[in-house]
Amino acid sequence: MSESSEEGPPNLSARRSGPAPGKRRQWSRMTLDLDPLSHPAFRSLYLARSVSLLSIAILAVAVAWQVYAISGSSVHVAGVSIGLAVGSLAGLVWGGALADRADRRRIMILGRAAYVGVVALLCVNSLRTEPGLTEIYVATLLSGLTSGISAPSLMAAMPRLVPAHQLAAAGALNALTMELSRLIGPLIAGALLAKVGSAACFIVVLVGASLVPVLLARLPRDVLMPEATSQPATKPPIYSQWFDGLRYVRHNRIIACLLALDLVMMLFVSVHVLMPQLAREVLQGGPQMVGYLYAAPACGALLVALTSGWTRQLARPGRLVVACALFWGVAIAFTGVAAGGLTQGLPWGVWPILLLLALAGMADTASDIVRGALLQIHTPDALRGRVSGLWLLQGYLGPALGGLQAGSLATLWSPGRALVIGGSACALAVGLFVAVPRTGLRDSLWRAGIKDSRQSSTSEKA
Questions:
Q1: Distance of alpha carbon 460 from alpha carbon 454, whole angstroms
Q2: Which ranges constitute the DSSP H helices of 101-224?
Q3: pLDDT tens per residue across span 405-422
Q4: How far apart are CA 241 and CA 51, in angstroms?
Q5: How far apart are CA 264 and CA 269, in angstroms?
Q6: Does residue 26 register a pLDDT over 70?
Q7: Model's pTM, two decimal places?
Q8: Cα–Cα distances in Å, from 31 out to 45, 103, 307, 450?
Q9: Domains and CATH numbers, the chain
């Protein structure tokens, strides 16, 4: 029974005014913060990014399943990730520097337009009687190249579209879109692969990829132009510009620790390359089971994104980043234990694996929201393209190298053992860095607070 019914007739004015301020504030701590969507430019970019992420999520499952069906090896699935990382390396070298000296809007449009041609190549290959593995590797390499050129501009554009105090909320909205895509995309891909075939997946992706440049063209023309104060009279060589970015990261211990921590998480644990083998050999399923496995982390991540109001209340965000990295490794290790139990005939079924993958997705997304906000706050606009490029580069290289070691271990032993080893190594590495005194992780990131971040950003702008 409500308080109003206990005290007598309801007060109409109170009803019109809504919940009490204290209760409203308490509820808002957990609800999704939609304030960044009040900015038209952010809305335009957000819509384009949403379509792009859904297309990429469908494409990732379709390519992984097709490669495993052709080769029968998780090493080749990891090899595709290596190709993506190599292409991204070349693209990010140019894209990161261009994002700090050219029109970021134009770079994004041209990069995503070139990506349409890559998807068309995959689509044509899938229509062949026997799709070629070489063609997939080439397309993956070109996909990394085009994405690497446009991605730093997209990431560096965010602080120009929303105020600094809304960056975490904008990151949460982006995470919501990403996890919805990771949830819905694999399910769509699994259904299409099971009932129609891989060609249908690539056609759907081609339509989505073609829409993205059109949506990006709606961005205002002047909002993402480089600042006049950040443009030197003569443009130095690209390698010199990248040295400036590397020098800044080396002297900013918080950003250096954020990059290192993310690399550790991905280097030891790249579960995505094991999904086809896990579905077929351990769970005795087909493409729909692959879709469920890819979607499971997104379920947990989606819950975190939907309750992202907690980002307003963080006093020590660095501690959350470290705790989530530790929890991520533990959850993946227990996923391997559950998978190993299934291979030994234990009766618990697929649900513990899906639940543990969902918990891992929760930890990864909570960490990613805060890491992205800290990175943008601690980086001046003149360097955001190159620092974002470094961030994205390790985001490609880490999973690629981690997928190679995970795929090799799964081929030698089993997917379960590969997950146990990788997850345990990740948790152990993070735990040691935190436990040992006078490490960069302990002295900088562990103590980093919101006030420190805002002060750092203010001093850099001054």
A1: 10
A2: 104-126, 133-161, 167-195, 198-216
A3: 888 888 888 888 888 888
A4: 32
A5: 8
A6: no
A7: 0.62
A8: 22, 35, 5, 20
A9: 38-225+236-461 (1.20.1250.20)
